[in-house]
Amino acid sequence: MMGDNMFGNTMWAGHWLWMLVLAIVVVIPAWRICQRTGYPGWMGVLILIPVVNLFLLYFIAFSDWRIDKDGEGRS
């Protein structure tokens, strides 16, 4: 039934492009948030891993931010 459809057995190339765009849109803000809170920016990449992204969110929300400890935080 799907044999006549050109999208039947393979992933459409636009799908991978769309996934790359979404990854960039999500990773860049997560990277910046990690940097601004004093944690390494590479931790922002963890936002792409299911379930780990929830742990990252809670970790950033409820941990003591290193930037606050250095005195560079809010006035």
UniProtKB/TrEMBL annotation:
Membrane-spanning segments: 12-33, 39-60
Keywords: Membrane, Transmembrane, Transmembrane helix
Keyword Membrane tagged: yes
Transmembrane is among the record's keywords: yes
Domain of life: Bacteria
Protein name: DUF805 domain-containing protein
Species this chain originates from: Marinobacter azerbaijanicus
